[in-house]
Amino acid sequence: MNGELQGKIAWVTGSSRGIGRRIAERLAEAGCKNAISGRNHPAVCP
After folding, report:
1. Which parts of the chain are beta strand (E)?
2. Which label site among 18, 31, 34, 36 has the fewest CB atoms less than 10 Å from its CB?
3. Does an H or E element contain 28, and which?
């Protein structure tokens, strides 16, 4: 990503595992601040 998400905020639901978790991780890598939610508490939050 080219930095267009730097400083943006994303709300990712279903992010405790699987595709939702990976999306939250990629958004964080791109500089986006995340609000995450899911049914299970992850061992490590992205």
Report:
1. 9-13, 33-37
2. 18
3. helix 18-29
Q: How do residues 22-36 score in pLDDT, each as one tens digit?
A: 999 999 999 999 888
Pairing state of beta strands 9-13 and 33-37?
A: parallel
- Please state, in angstroms and rounded to a whole number, the distance separating the CA atoms of residues 41 and 25: 15
Distance CA 31, CA 28 (A): 5
Q: 19 exposed, middle or buried (CB, 10 Å; 0-12, 13-18, 19+)?
A: exposed
Q: Which two tokens mark 32?
A: 């986006």
